[in-house]
């Protein structure tokens, strides 16, 4: 009898695995730290990442950088692709096309709009075209009184032909110039995010919404009707970015009430993404450059992963 049960379980295992995949969704958010190609974008200040620039950026280094990002996503996904990947600090569609080529076994496509950012770095969304259908997308412009910044990327998508997911990919203004002095920029950007959230929930109170990206500040519950999934992780002392020996969760997920209790966030931090921190002890992200010195690494941020258990009911 036990032998018969084992045979039945073995026969059912592939179906059970497929069912589990269909009822859950995995999302990654990753600030990839200056993914530039080697050509000048008109009207953009990308000269440092040219072959004759301060970083001595080359096609070999560019290709290596893309390969490193692909390596990270493959290791997170394993046998299955990550259906949705939000990226920060990507120069243009050419870089995204190169990344999708490196990940071609996963059938990735991308959503991207050029923004007004002075250096030309934008946010983007990769998606597995075999499991994700894009329903709508648009850039949400942020007005900072002449100070150009990145747009917010809004994308609504259908996952496995069953669940509509609303995503906002963000890279908020940095603290360069002072945390307090620049706070208004991040607040204004979050107001644009809030307006989009309110618009969605007005028409769909049970909408599944995920806000992701580099918030350039500590995690807070400062978006109305949304939950910041990185708060407990920050309180535990973990982080995605290390500055002067202190880990902070600059990279964050916010989720709407309909999925908050069924969502779990984590930081992807295998040893090979880290290097020894000789100045402040312990470890730090293995970044591409330390100052202007090429470090042959990945990024100064660690990626974050969100698992959502879906009920497959709209």
Account of the 3D structure:
- This protein is α+β, with helices and mostly antiparallel strands and 314 residues long.
- The protein has a single domain (24-309), classed as Endonuclease/exonuclease/phosphatase (Deoxyribonuclease I, Chain A, 4-Layer Sandwich), CATH 3.60.10.
- Helices cover 25% and strands 31% of the residues.
- It is built from 6 helices and 18 strands.
- The chain has helices at residues 2-22, 59-77, 93-102, 183-203, 231-235, 257-260, and strands at residues 24-35, 84-90, 108-112, 122-128, 132-140, 152-159, 163-171, 208-214, 227-228, 241-243, 246-248, 251-255, 263-267, 274-276, 283-285, 289-290, 293-294, 304-309.
- It has a 6-stranded mixed beta sheet with strand order 3-4-2-1-18-13. Strands 5-6-7-8-12-9 form a 6-stranded mixed beta sheet. Strands 10-11 form a two-stranded antiparallel ribbon.
- Helix 4 links the parallel strand 7 (163-171) and strand 8 (208-214).
- Helix 2 packs across helix 3.
- The longest helix has 21 residues, at 2-22.
